[in-house]
Model the fold of this input.
Amino acid sequence: MPKEKNTEIEVTVDNLGINGEGVARYNGKAVFIKNALPGEKVRAKIIFSKPSFCHAIVLEYLTKSENRVNPACPLFPKCGGCNIQHLNYDAQLLYKQDLVKSTLLHVGKIDFPVSKTVASDKVLRYRNKMSLPVREGKNGVEIGLFATASHRVVPCEDCLLQPEWNKKLIALLKVFVRDNKIPCYNEETKKGVLKHFVVREVEGCLYVTLVVTKQIKADVFADMLADNFNSFVLYQNVNTMDNNVILSDRWHVVKKHNEPKLVENIFTTIHPAGFFQVNDYIRRKMYEKVAYVLKNHDTNVVIDAYSGAGLLTSFFASFAPVVYGIEINKQAHESATEIAKNNGLDNMHPILGDVKDKIGDILDEHIGRNIALVLDPPRSGCDRSVIEKINAYEGITNLVYISCNPATLARDLSLLTSYEILSVTPYDMFPQTVNVETLVILRKKTK
Ligand SMILES: C[S@@+](CC[C@H](N)C(=O)[O-])C[C@H]1O[C@@H](n2cnc3c(N)ncnc32)[C@H](O)[C@@H]1O
Done:
């Protein structure tokens, strides 16, 4: 095998890889080239080589794709937040449709027509959640995003995926840290207190969390927030773990300031530890579609497995006689319990626990009834034992699978052998990135 590192090559990019990099072939192996788009011919230099693949950087674009656009953000592609900002939006939607289709085929051996990707109304500033590492840099505090596949912070003053509030919040935190001499975390020495800055906006209220290794005096920061924002809750989350998990379960409320109680016409508050879809517009579109599908069937019982904070479960409770939500995260489960109580939803039953331990009992309790099951698992997909129970149970007439990972979706669909797929629709929950949310509607196969 010739030594390929530093070799200059001329290749044409065939497609996009899972991190948004261009993929071409050279010497029979895949070459991953950052910032190169399908159809582009480039002169590139190999910077890393392995027997089956290599990485290269572009030296010159010999031809450029007509789908290339100027990225709106000056930090692209240095920062690891976005990976396809250089691709025009229609091509992004098409890419995600193709990605779902080809993953179903290659991973799941499922050849099924995939609908067009449902577009987001906003392609920038669409996220309701930001999570930024805070580090002690050479020149003081650094707040930003990690560069791709690293723990190097790329400082950021305005992330274009976040609403305008991110600018002010980052600036305020910097002033607070500087004026109050708050020591920020250093990953090498493991010293420092302030580690992460996590903010989520729900119905105009900012849920602001300072992730710290020990509690700090944060009243001054609460006052700064009150001078600038109408509605917020400030938390400290004490996290002493030395790993990639951002939040621990040690929460302290510093201040609540005009917190709303209504989220999408439901009386509730959403705890920042509970999962909440990051793009409000796409979340609503997807929830409406799921509710529409289930409403049109004579469903006696709905099981919302992996239910998060219970918002979707509560929609089901408005039309189905009995509804269960199964969720493993304690705070998310508490939010769901609060929704049921505050809205008088006596037919909504949030259950705390692992789906694999809880679903069997619920199914057994409702033998002979029409059950609709909604699966919305984390990226790792469903446990094999969950799939087996679903296959074996006769009464699940309608099945909905919501997934943020096409590969585990394809694997699980291929295992759900007693169901047939009716539709597969990608939703663009995450514009400017290669990530995609997919909604699959299935029904029990007739014998
Ligand atoms: C993708 S989120 C879906 C949340 C919800 N359906 C929504 O739309 O907001 C997945 C949820 O599953 C929960 N979860 C992860 N593993 C679980 C398990 N084994 N059993 C129950 N819930 C689990 C996570 O805490 C998270 O809230």
About this structure: Residues 275-277, 306-308, 312, 326-329, 332, 354-355, 376-378 surround S-adenosylmethionine (CB under 6 Å).
